[in-house]
Amino acid sequence: MRVLLAGGAGYIGAHTALALIEHGHEVLVVDDFSNSCIDSIQRVEALSGATVTVIENDLSNLEASRVALAGHDFDAVIHLAGLKAVGESTEQPIRYYRTNIDSTLNLLEIMRERAVTKLVFSSSATVYGTPELLPLREDHPVGNNITNPYGWSKAMNEQIIRDVQAAWPELGAVLLRYFNPVGAHPSGQIGEDPSGVPSNLMPYVAQVAIGRRERLSVFGNDYPTDDGTGVRDYIHVMDLAEGHVAALEHLRDGVTAYNLGTGRGSSVLDLVSAFEQAVGIAIPYEIVAARAGDVAEAVADPSLAHAELGWTATRSLADACRDSWAWQSSNPNGYGA
Ligand code: UFG
Fold it and tell me: Which residue has the least CA distance to atom 16 on ligand 1?
């Protein structure tokens, strides 16, 4: 298939581009490069030997997007374009809603105009809000006490896609609810390149290991978990990328949501020791106050994706730590440095 990969230069995007190419698909990336750079795509090309068409465009501008995409044919859209920093979204809600909602509306409008009927959307486990029952299944209620505009924008996008599909039955859409993506391509050539101080755990740990940060702050140790620190379902980004390919290749009528996770929960301290063991570098840390809006535990039940997409995560947390380090140690300052 010829796949329009919206947001394809970002962390998930670059790995997904590579996985698509490895499965015989052709990739067109559309990205505004507001939080990414062309280097990631150049490295995907070098790793795969394929050429990736790159269209620089802001998808939240409908007219500009129509013009930018004219003359490019594609059979399906994987939509990963959006802003994703939870804390920033509470400070800039208008920007987050405009970017994350308008890009989806505009892509759907253009897909309808051009009769492109396959959509894979990058959603998040954050749509479940505060989990009522673990592990999380796809039929868990959505919108249960979501604490930030980023999370709401994902839940709203899911609803928009459902409403558009109801009015346009030819559309087939998959909502992929990511748990916590970590790791990098094992080559260390592509990886996560956060701007400023990382807000996510794995890139922060990797920056402590390389000496860019002094120590990790562990946000709270009195959660009702085994060691008191927050528990998450960390999924290797290559597994996640392959989940997009499986979703695309099994796409059917209607709208279906799938969890992309491993089904295994790890605490903050579990991740720290997994990293120390995999990499052989001690990670100094201190316990500080819990972060506002964090939940104690979020772990997927990934069985639906296994049953219906034939997909399952195969890589371990140790693999993710080793590959994050391969990326961090060979690119200490990220891309272009
Ligand atoms: N944590 C720390 N110190 C840090 C960073 C994180 O202790 O410096 C802890 C958090 O409190 C949490 C765990 O590490 O317990 C994971 O935190 P992340 O920030 O890496 O990930 P979150 O689970 O908070 O959020 C992630 C994505 C969101 C997404 C959410 C869905 O960043 O985009 O998963 O569950 F919405």
Answer: 201
